[in-house]
Design brief:
single chain; 276 residues; alpha+beta; N-terminal domain of MutM-like DNA repair proteins; Helicase, Ruva Protein, domain 3; five-stranded antiparallel β-sheet; four-stranded antiparallel β-sheet; 7 helices; 29% helix; elongated; binds zinc ion
């Protein structure tokens, strides 16, 4: 599943090239998670503004005579990828949305169709507001501090891993990244969130930022021809210290790593290095 780093690398792969491009056609394929919410042809002749990311959503503002006139909120779902190319060729069976512009076509390919492209009058209106309002802080937002994380964890009584995965404290700590950050911070993923001390919350906040920064750097290094978000996740996983490594000796202490299931998701951790 494309996670925050993959979505950010995707954004960087086309943001500059599409900025200022004029929409010349919109092609909608099979239904995605939600309907587009606007007559596709009404977007023609608008100009693409600066593409932004919030959590795992991308926001493509569309301008009319230099004024923002709505935009498209995009999500890659479980299996989606976005590519921007001058001549993409005919749409294939899994290509469900094309934004054709004067500079090239932005195409969403999504075999499982859990992805979405949704029109809203602005980021703070309609469907966009509904989807974005409940999101936690961005991991690189200066407001995401150990103190913030500590206070947010205190307000709930679930395993710390599940608190991270919920996405309403901080976005971006998807399954792999949450496992790796908890290992880096030395915290047992089963620890109840309200029992995490302030110093441990500080370490965890730093570990979340570091883990995501490493994933971004990895994606950044392969930005050229970037198309397959799963390829990037795979490369990060190859460097993972706990994720996907059940039974393998911990590279810090030699204890065999363990796999458990929390909230239907696999959790990997070191029973020695990570404490409750
Ligand atoms: Zn260990």
């Amino acid at each position: 599943m494309p996670e925050l780093p993959e979505v950010e690398v995707t954004r960087q792969s086309f943001c500059e090239r599409i900025h200022g491009a004029r929409v010349t056609a919109v092609r909608v394929g099979k239904p995605l998670r939600w309907p587009l919410g606007v007559v596709p042809d009404s977007l023609v002749a608008r100009t693409v503004g600066e593409v932004a990311r919030r959590g795992k959503y991308l926001w493509l503002p569309l301008e009319d005579d230099g004024r923002e006139a709505g935009g498209l909120l995009m999500h890659l779902g479980m299996s989606g990828s976005l590519a921007f190319s001058p001549a993409p060729g005919d749409a294939g069976v899994h290509d469900h949305f094309d934004l054709v512009t004067s500079r090239g076509t932005l195409r969403l390919t999504d075999p499982r169709r859990f992805g979405a492209v949704v029109w809203s009058a602005s980021r703070s209106d309609g469907m966009a507001a509904k989807l974005l309002n409940g999101l936690g802080l961005e991991p690189f937002d200066p407001a995401f501090t150990g103190a913030h994380l500590h206070a947010a964890l205190k307000r709930r009584r679930v395993a710390v891993k599940l608190a991270l995965l919920s996405g309403d404290i901080v976005v971006g700590a998807g399954n792999i990244y949450a496992c790796e950050a908890l290992f880096a911070a030395g915290i047992d993923p089963r620890t109840r969130s309200d029992r995490i001390s302030r110093p441990r919350a500080e370490r965890l906040a730093a570990a979340i930022r570091d883990t995501l920064a490493r994933a971004l750097a990895l994606g950044g290094s392969t930005l050229r021809d970037f198309r397959d978000a799963h390829g990037m996740e795979g490369r990060f996983q190859a460097q993972a210290r706990v994720y996907g490594r059940a039974g393998v000796p911990c590279d810090a202490c030699g204890t065999p790593l363990r796999r458990i299931v929390q909230g239907q998701r696999a959790t990997f951790f070191c029973p020695t290095c990570q404490r409750r």
